[in-house]
Amino acid sequence: MDPTIARKTWRTLEPVHGMIYFAPEGSEIYARAGLSHHRTAYFASRAAAMGAVPAEVVIATFYNFEPSLVRRSIPAAWGMASPARILEARLELADLALRRAWGDAIGGDDLAEAAVLARRAAEAACEHPEGRPLFAAHASLPWPDQPHLVLWHAQTLLREFRGDGHLTALVGEGLDGVEALITHAASGDVPAEVLRATRAWPEAAWAAGEDRLRARGLLAGDGLTFTDAGRALRQRIEDLTDQRSTAPYEVLGDDGCERLRTLGRVLSRRVVDAGLLQVDPSRYLD
Description:
2 strands
């Protein structure tokens, strides 16, 4: 399969998973579970599938957050709520938010078909857990019964499968967490200040990361401008990520991927229109 087809299929459905970090219902649901701070809820809810792991495991698997930010939430979160309770809250949030977004589509034939297709791809991914710890943890969770939650869980697996593959590409190119963010910013996808602030990197640490990349000949001048070598490095990372994320979609074939994209485009648009995704939707809904 052309890796571009796999990437487009993942990207079209990504709002179905990504909304779990932005849905406004989350504050109340996680607070009832014992997690009143949104940062703690984020780290704990995404990491809970791995169990009550130490901060170092979250730092490693999430990769690009400033370590002290993680340590302010983990392992304290496990004293506020067990991983099992947090996973219950996360599933409750997915159910409530998607019901609001999809309304009468819940129980419909199109949603059920999308769930079947996405699950086939996700189950194919489960045959390749090697080197993908965060994906493997989520793959160990039981499948929900209802089609809208099956689709959400399947897309979650496919996202973490791709994410873990992306991290191996970053490691292979010798980029640490802040350097990975800087190269992401230099590519123009997300403003540098947004990435630096949301991952809590101090200005000095960010500047030091820029200096290391300049010393490697990857950045030119004083700004975030790639050299030819830097541009080539970032393209290698993206190409490797695509190549390592293709296997789940091969089971669907080109026609199956196109059908899933057709169905998913409508569902993702409803997620965006419901205000569940606080990022630019144009990167997903092309």
